[in-house]
Design brief:
This protein is an alpha+beta fold. It has one helix and three strands, in the order βαββ.
């Protein structure tokens, strides 16, 4: 590959990205309540990466954001 092409090669080193994680539980009877809760967390810079609902109206969520 020509030097200065801007493309990365296997010899280029990219430092691993470090993540901060947050686990949160939400109780929401209506989907709009859940959406509002998720938006509030998102405004703090958190990205939803996993969600499950083990029982109706209760949600367990895992969020991440880059470490500062």
């Amino acid at each position: 590959m020509p030097e200065g092409s801007g493309l990365m090669t296997s010899t280029d080193h990219v430092p691993p990205r470090l993540w901060d994680y947050r686990v949160a539980g939400f109780h929401a009877r209506h989907i709009d309540m859940l959406e509002q809760s998720l938006k509030e967390v998102g405004r703090e810079g958190w990205e939803l990466v996993f969600m499950q609902s083990p029982v109706p109206n209760k949600y367990q969520c895992v969020f991440r954001r880059p470490m500062a």
